[in-house]
Structures are given as structure tokens and as C-alpha cells.
Amino acid sequence: MKILVINCGSSSLKYQLIDMADESVIAKGLCERIGIEGSKLTHEPAGKDKVVIEKAMPTHQTAIELVMEALQSPEHGVIKSTDEISAIGHRVLHGGKVYSDSIVVNEDVKRVIRECFDLGPLHNPANLMGIEACEAAMPGKPNVAVWDTGFGMSMPEKAYMYAIPHEYYEKYSIRRYGFHGTSHMYVSGETIKFAGLDPEKAKVIVCHLGNGASVSASIGGKCVDTSMGLTPLEGLIMGTRSGDVDPAVVQFICNKEGKDVNEVLNILNKKSGVLGMTDGISSDFRDIENAKADGNHLAEVALDAFVYRVAKYIGAYTAAMNGVDAIAFTAGVGENDKVGRKNICSYLEYLGVKIDDEANNVRGKRTMISAPDSKVKVVLMPTNEELAIARETKRLI
Ligand code: ADP
């Protein structure tokens, strides 16, 4: 069985064709600058050379058509016809309060995606375009929606309710949702297997540390808390996002700088995080580390604050679950930055966390990085959101 996984952004479309027999990637690629001049498709078929196809892609529909052509092309294709594709799995950002479990797309699912446009203004419209483009290009094939908010939907009310007037929850569904759901679901599940934990009871904290970053706590693979909220702005310090701030900061900046709320929220989303803290050095953690090595004080503070906030969330989630069996690190920073992992864990000695420095000297490979006598298992577990989406799609069809 072959499953096509689609992840649409507002001007991009990532895809992977996965053979579910052995979960191998047959081809993957990326369409960039959809709807903008200079669009191109980078297609990477397994076992063949990568190709870059520069062609106008005014819409997601044309992008999907080009992807289909590339997948079936005599030179760099990997299938003879789309008949070989059993189903398409889509990453969809927001399912609101309505959907948590992955679901085969029907008219009601599309209605909900549309109704959640204001909860995910950059992603939900693109996700819907991706689904409709696949419906047009491959009529009759099942499309499955896998929600980025899905994992967080099992949080109890005490974790997801904001302490604001209840009418806003009733009227506008304002609550904490959590994001990176497919990653947290995949990494927590794989960590339970890898660390040999009880699948029903294991208490796992996943630190998804990339450009966007979030922490989740789960018991038996079910999320009990996660750091992102109504939007992906809450929680950790990220590449460009502030994470938690006193909301009064928004009012203060508005008044002092003569800006409106939308402008300040844009600053908190796009110009804050380690980028903002370092006065604009970079949103890329490698650049911040280099600046720190060159003696830049702001870079040092930004990295310290990033690590400190992750450690505080781990402490909070350990309390929330009354214990923790395993802590997993994943995504760009989590998988590659051994110093960051070590520094975060140095706050956790009171939990009996002990890192094995030799084991921790690793990148992007699933590894037990805690010492044999560590009370909590610490794991590097590379995320694989595409595979998680493909598995969900297979399960549903
Ligand atoms: P996203 O999917 O949210 O865009 P990724 O999970 O791809 O993010 O992570 C990107 C981040 O990973 C970048 O900020 C990059 O600097 C960071 N990263 C990659 N390699 C390293 C490394 N060796 N040390 C520190 N950070 C790294």
C-alpha cells in the first residue's frame, strides 16, 4: 500500500510517498513559492537523482498536478499511475473543538476546516486547498485529515481552560489546543516502545525543539498537557516567537509605540524569541550559538533563557503527572544540539536525571542518552510527522 502525505503551507506544499509495506519513502519533495513568481518543485525520488522543476504554480491545484506528473514521469517518476496510491493523508492545522481523531474527509470535515480559518489563518485555508486539489486530481481516492491540534484534545479541562470569562469559550471556542500534535503523538509512542515502558501507564515528556517549539506531557500516549495554546505562540521561547509573556506587555507596547494589537502580536510571533532577544542576530539556533562563542552577551542570555524555560516546563509537567518515566528530545534543536540537551538536563538532577555524555554525543538518531542508573530515561527520538500521518491514514482506510 502506498500513501501520499501532503503538508500544505500558504505558499508551499511538502509531500512524501510512503510504501507502507516497510514504511520507506519512495519519493519526497517540496513546491515553493506557490502563487508567487519564481515557483519551483524539488522532487527527490528514492534511488534516482533529485530534480528541480521550475514552472509557474499559480495555485495549490497546479502544484498538485505537477507533483502527480513528477511522481509518474518516465525519467524521475516512482509509480506508473495514480492507481498505485491508496489514499492521501493531509496535515491539517486546526480542527477546533469538533475534531480530534484523524478522519476520512467528507463535506462536514471540510466545513469544519473552513470554520476554523480564523483559528489557523495561515494554515487552514492552505490545508483545505491541498485537500480540494487532491480531490480534483485523484477523484474518488480517500483523503484523510490528521489534525495538528488532535493530540492536545485529550487534555483535561483544568489544563485547557483559560482563566478568562467563560462566555469566550462558549462563543468563540477560546481554549488551549496545543500544536505539533503529530510529532508529539509519534515521538511519545516511539519513546514508550524504545524505552520499553508500560504502554498504558508510561509518563512521557516530549520536548519538540525546532524553530517552533513545544513540550507535551502524556500518560499512556494520551496528552495531559502541552505548552502551546489557542495559537502556537504560547509556551517556550522559539526562533521568532516569544512564548509566554504577561499579556499586559501587549498593551504597554501599544501605548508606548502607538501600535495596534495586531502589530504587536505580529512582533511577538515574528520578531521575538531568540531573534528578538539577540537584537536581531538570527532565529537560527546555530547562529545564536556561534554569537555566544564570540562573546555576545545577548546570545548567551537568549540560549540560557531558552534552556531555562524548557527545564521549567519539564518540572511543571513532572508535577502535573506526579512523576515522569521518560523525557524525549526531538526536532531540529532537540535532535542536533547536544549542549542544549545537556544544559536542560542539568536542571533535572533533583529528578535523578543523569546524562551519559558519550551517548549524548549524537545527532538525529534514536538513542538512549541517559546513563544506565538515571532514574528517568532520556531519549533522542527523531520526529517523523509524515510517517505518523501515513500510519493514521492507513489505519483509517
Ligand atoms: P521547524 O520545523 O519548526 O522549522 P526544525 O525542527 O527544522 O524547525 O528546526 C530548525 C532549527 O533547528 C533551527 O533553528 C536550527 O538552527 C536548529 N538546528 C539545527 N541543527 C542544529 C545544531 N547543530 N545546533 C543547534 N541548533 C540546530
In short:
This protein is an alpha/beta fold and 397 residues long. The chain is built from 15 helices and 14 strands.
Q: Mind explaining what this structure looks like?
A:
By secondary structure, this protein is α/β, with parallel strands linked by helices. The chain folds into two domains: 146 residues, 2-Layer Sandwich (Nucleotidyltransferase, domain 5), CATH 3.30.420.40; 183 residues, ATPase, nucleotide binding domain (Nucleotidyltransferase, domain 5). The protein is 38% helix and 20% strand. α6 packs across α15 and α10 crosses α11. The protein is globular and about 60 Å long. Bound molecules: adenosine-5'-diphosphate (ADP). Adenosine-5'-diphosphate binds next to α10 and α12.
Count of alpha and pi helical runs? 15
The CATH H-level superfamily of the largest domain is ATPase, nucleotide binding domain
Strand content: 15-25%
CATH classification class of the largest domain = Alpha Beta
Shape: globular
Poorly predicted parts: none
List the helices and strands and how they pair.
Blueprint: E1 2-8, E2 13-19, E3 24-32, E4 40-45, E5 51-54, H1 60-72, E6 85-92, E7 103-104, H2 107-115, H3 124-137, E8 143-147, H4 157-160, H5 166-172, H6 181-194, E9 203-209, E10 213-219, E11 222-226, H7 248-257, H8 261-270, H9 273-277, H10 285-293, H11 297-321, E12 326-330, H12 331-336, H13 338-346, H14 357-360, E13 367-368, E14 377-380, H15 385-396
Helix pairs in contact: 1-3, 6-15, 7-8, 10-11, 11-13
Bound molecules: adenosine-5'-diphosphate.
Quickly list its features.
single chain, 397 residues, Nucleotidyltransferase, domain 5, 2 domains, eight-stranded mixed beta sheet, 15 helices, globular, binds adenosine-5'-diphosphate
